[in-house]
User: What shape does this take?
Amino acid sequence: MDLLSDYLLEKILEEGAYPVKNSCMYNVSAEPIRRHVELFGDRVYLLKADDQEFVLRYAACFGQFSILKNALISYRHLPLKLFELADSFRLEQSGEVSGLFRQRRFSMGDLHVLCRDLKSAKQEFLKLYKKAHHSAHDFGWDYVAVVNMCRSFYEQNRDFISDLMQAYRKPMLLYLGVPDDKYYWVINIDLDYIDNLCRPVESVGMQIDIGNAERFGIQFIDEKGERRYPVIIHAALMGSLERWLNNILENAAKKQKQGKLPSLPLWLSPIQVRILPIADRHISKTIEIANKLKGSRARVDIDDRPISLQRKIRDAREEWIPLYAVIGDREVRNDKLAVSIREDEEYKNKQIPLEELIQSIQSKCHNRPFRKSYVSMKLSRRPKFA
Ligand SMILES: [Zn+2]
Assistant: This one.
């Protein structure tokens, strides 16, 4: 989850967005919040404190709009981008909550872009739309695009819709039945991931919003010194991190269906290399190798439990460990490692020097975020979480 949030933050910073952090409780006496509660009261968490009523954050828009409302913004600052990875809460009914797919608390990465007019909003939107598809390719899948808009917007912006189509060169589902003036947005695109059971999983949501700047009092000063309302893009480029992880696991399940070994990308694997000593006399060499790997930014662990080598190998495979190496007398004597590499169909065995293993991990994880391992290096020291 943390690596995914690092990945998302990198994408957002490339866009020149300002990351922000807001409260996750909002006072219901604020007009837009009150209206939301009236409309979706059975889907929000309400709390009482100090004789006032609060709602747990259901989206990041309100918090960011509150910042923007009080900001002094010139046309020179546009497009202005704010981003927040926000814990959000929805009171889903009990039958609707499902694994990582739908939860009552989730981490939503929400980007808002203030643009001077619709023309500039369309340019920014197209860029973000391409970015969302590009990110999906980084993880090995394609989205299906579902576009909602009213017919009049479509008629007046055919070139823009065709640019969106050209960007991806795949069919899009266009729904033109949205009534005029019903929503604050003029176009809404959902990008759906198709899961292992062929169900669409709404994963990315993007909108061009022409109504909220006025409603929230968000303004910028134009070249003539006059106050104007910007057009706002809402973009959840990865949706919620939980759903993104859901898609990663679904993708692994698809692989398994094709008779391949399910796996995670190496840079996302919680443990990248496991070292398996055959006997206690091999442990010191094992620790030496593990420390070298750790020093070279790899997440490594050691299976030092008093169990058979067969059991250790079976566990490493069941835990989808991408690389494991057995250390015995021969490995202690010469400088090569017997590495088993989890590939599509099976583990492939390779005799390689440690340096080569390190280089191969680094090149496979190139340009991807890295975090240190969150668990103790020795398996014998790890509690079992059921
Ligand atoms: Zn929003």
